[in-house]
Specification:
The complex is a heterodimer of chains A (270) and B (143). Chain A is of the alpha/beta class. Helices cover 41% and strands 16% of the residues of chain A. In chain B, strands 2-1-5-4-3 form a five-stranded antiparallel sheet. Classes of the chains: A alpha/beta (270), B alpha+beta (143).
Amino acid sequence: MTHKLIHQLNVTRHGRGAIPVLMVHGFGCDQTAWSRLLPLLENDFHLVLFDLPGFGAADPAAFDPRRHGDPAGHAEDVAALCEELKLEGAMMVGHSIGGTIGMMASLLRPGTFHKLCLICSSARYLDEPPHYRGGFSETELDGLMQLMEQNYLDWAGTLSTVALGDAGTPNHRQDLQQRLLAVAPEVLRALARSIFYGDTRHLLPRVTTPSVVVQTAHDAIVPMEAAGYLAETLPDGDLVVMQTAGHYPQLTDPETLAWVLRGCLTVSDR
Amino acid sequence: MSIGPVELADFWDLSPSGHAVVDDHGIILAANRTLANWMARPPAAMVGSPASELFKPAARVLYLALLAYRLAVGSRAEEIHLELDIPDASPLPVLCSGRRIRYQGAHLILLTLQEFSRKHALEKELLEASQSREPLLGQRDKR
């Protein structure tokens, strides 16, 4: 058994607990997005973090433009990573599209997860009036793609800064930024299009793993209706609403999120 | 010439840029008159609403996922290209920069929004021209 993905996806482990929790970050982030949550959970859990291909400090060689322009390709990697890690009956905490990717991985490798926690995730961002509200019209999503293009260099800049933290030397920083800039805009564009125009609602009835949808009370990216739809359509889904605002509660309100997650990831229901 | 604190406070309202002070949960604590005028609301009416709601829906994603994220992890963000959601008018393109500072035991976000209409139009034209060329270049590469 090789540990290729463990190295390529920059797997790091934290905490002293017995329960393994795989944490899947969202689009445009990397595992450092969890940094404020780690100290609050590491007494109780064994936290497994990694960077999705194309993001953070993941090995550029892990990035396959044919597969990683779609969340399904990332889900294949997460399932393969879980195989390398020999995860069985673990917990999955995923933020935004990371939650969707983790959910898709649970379908590819049944038994991996005992519970899924989807933070500010959505099965569909595009409105389909009058029955479904995803939060965005087609015109608005077209505008989003345009704005992403206009901010492309900033995405790369953010990624490199976050990936390096404070420890990176100027040379290392420049090297990584160059590598990130080498990820062509059309690659990130493809993944962004796939996320925001995509639809994973058809997968939801197949998810047998108990799931908790954790949603902030005011999220400009995911409306409460979309979070409610996700929780209601998942066969064993619950909705927990955090009385806080924003799309990144792990950064803006980690204490409340840790409290919520501790409730979701209880030992008693293993 | 020395400038007094009262005049400095006036300059906050007279600034050619929009300014806002936002708490760590993204709620506006104060906005200057320039920003309030753009949004067609009195400055006091801006207080208490989420800063993300200043922007068009597409720009809200960028505000949260790029600017607010960068501020949360790195305490500074520069020149993020966004669009203000102006009531009954076209969106106003702005370049938004921010700083996350510590104040009285809490964190605050200082936002500056600079109007960007003329350069935005030029940038959009360049982008559209570049995008229209891409399929042609793709065809050429396949040959």
